[in-house]
Amino acid sequence: MLSGVKCTVSSCKFWQSGNHCDASTIQVNVDGGGREASQSRETNCHTFAPKS
Ligand code: SF4
């Protein structure tokens, strides 16, 4: 569990109740590519995977 990560994406297979992430690492990228975001909404977790 990534104790410092709070996530509300409950449809992710790594998500656990209490808004915890159970992945060992996460990858966060800028929407649309590149390396510069100017607002939080322009970033996303790309470790997300749907529950099967
Ligand atoms: S992998 Fe990303 S989307 Fe999934 S629970 Fe962890 S932080 Fe949230």
Present as ligands are: iron/sulfur cluster
Into which percent range does the helicity of residues fall?
A: under 10%
Number of distinct beta strands: 5
Task: Give me the number of helical elements.
Answer: 0
**Average of the residue pLDDT scores:** 97
Notes on the protein architecture:
The chain has strands spanning about 1-5, 15, 20, 30, 45. It has about 50 residues and is mostly beta strands. The chain has one domain (about 1-45). Iron/sulfur cluster binds next to loops.
SSE layout:
Layout (H helix, E strand, L loop, with lengths): L1 E5 L8 E2 L3 E2 L6 E3 L12 E3 L7
Antiparallel strand pairs: 1-3, 2-3, 4-5
The structure holds iron/sulfur cluster.
Summary, kept brief:
The chain has strands spanning 2-6, 15-16, 20-21, 28-30, 43-45.
Output the keywords.
mainly beta; single chain; 52 residues; binds iron/sulfur cluster; two-stranded antiparallel ribbon
